[in-house]
């Protein structure tokens, strides 16, 4: 049966490679795109007979269309003489096809009409998807959902791995205003989802009227790569409602993943299994969150976010400087998580999964609902749901303590620790609903008769957290004792940071504030005024960027 399942998968992969991957569905003609007259997909003994592409050297200009027939002739030979293409190879070929204009490409941009940004320079991150990616994911997801053939379904789940393909750009306010006008033109109140605007785009200059963006592509099917690029938003080629609905339906998460509060916290309690926290590590990964909570020996425990700094300011990236935090990622993957908790689904809180072992996807993930997450995040969430490893908390009930308190007891039945999991509530200081409505973790340690409180806030601002505390009948953050604070939103200014002190003077400074950021006030990470408020309250304020060897800040318990 397993052999039959593998054969069935091989046939589907062959069909995809033959009919779609190596048969371009779209062309952007570019007279500057120069190919070697013999350029094509070839075999190389130095590359283990895997599919590769020659460098483009010649001065002879050849349009991509002339390669179609030759490519089709090679497909049968490739299939006969080479091992099955891996998910990794297929993803990177789809990335290459996108860069070369061989497949229609769409961009998912956050709806500019929903924001009131005042900065002179705005950094935006957008998911990209091509026609080939959509067909590949539809094929894989359909197979994962095949309830009539479990062997085949399991074979596909082992083969596939979620990938990321997004674009990051720095936009001047005038450019942002132009995009906002375009969004107003494209906006429809009848759409299934109004959080994002969908447009057709290209990496090659189109003949049509367009808006040019400069930035870089963040792509990952295994390692996380950043590639400098220019992207063109095509003004007069709008997606039809049918095309938008097809994309949204493809990545729609089943409602069964959303659990009632009591059920959500009961699942968490079983995973925690009465294990107290022994230590906490906040890793140095730039403007991103990755925190490991150790509960046992040999690096066993769970993650609170597994992010990565995938949103560098493009204009600040310097040639020859490494930004991948590879040394940190090597430490991160040494951990053995029993489960993962996400504060929310932004890329800087999930993108680290691209560099981890695949067994990180074989554990349960607890997170807020991701109905308005970007497409890259939904691809990950949907895969987890197919494996029955996705447990979501409802965001529509407002800020609150989820379910109740999880108490940890010693063998003598003494209380030695407790967990509280909150969901924030939308506040005006941050236009992002996912940020405001993220999960916050408060852990209190009672070892040795002493009380130590650790508060980890993800991107939930202080005002949003206060609403959760108020709705649960608890004190606001200014009135709460905190020994260690993992500061919200990388210390940004969109946090209503005045709520941390509420204008009070703390005569005795205690505790430590940890900011997961690059420690560059000029880039607002951290925000200067936010930093000043932290220094008013805490005895020590540190940024993860300062942690070199080892590449994390440790909280002892």
List keywords for this structure.
557 residues; alpha/beta; 8-stranded mixed beta sheet; 13 helices; 24 strands; globular
Description of the structure:
The chain has 557 residues and is α/β, with parallel strands linked by helices. The protein contains 13 helices and 24 strands. The protein has helices spanning 2-21, 68-81, 87-99, 131-144, 150-159, 173-186, 241-250, 261-272, 326-332, 375-386, 433-436, 462-471, 528-537; strands spanning 41-42, 52-53, 105-110, 121-130, 164-172, 196-202, 210-220, 224-234, 258-259, 279-283, 290-294, 300-306, 336-341, 364-368, 390-393, 400-401, 406-409, 415-423, 439-445, 452-456, 484-486, 512-515, 540-543, 552-556. The protein has an eight-stranded mixed beta sheet. Strands 16, 17, 18, 19, 20, 21, 22 and 23 form an eight-stranded mixed beta sheet that branches. The chain has a six-stranded antiparallel β-barrel with strand order 3-4-5-7-8-6, surrounded by four helices. Strand 12, helix 9 and strand 13 (336-341) form a beta-alpha-beta unit. The longest helix is centred in the first third of the chain and has 20 residues, at 2-21.
Itemize the secondary structure elements and their pairings:
Layout: H1 2-21, E1 41-42, E2 52-53, H2 68-81, H3 87-99, E3 105-110, E4 121-130, H4 131-144, H5 150-159, E5 164-172, H6 173-186, E6 196-202, E7 210-220, E8 224-234, H7 241-250, E9 258-259, H8 261-272, E10 279-283, E11 290-294, E12 300-306, H9 326-332, E13 336-341, E14 364-368, H10 375-386, E15 390-393, E16 400-401, E17 406-409, E18 415-423, H11 433-436, E19 439-445, E20 452-456, H12 462-471, E21 484-486, E22 512-515, H13 528-537, E23 540-543, E24 552-556
Parallel strand pairs: 9-15, 12-13, 13-14, 14-15, 20-21, 21-22, 22-23
Antiparallel strand pairs: 1-2, 3-4, 3-6, 4-5, 5-7, 6-8, 7-8, 10-11, 10-24, 11-12, 16-18, 17-18, 18-19, 19-20
Helix pairs in contact: 1-4, 1-5
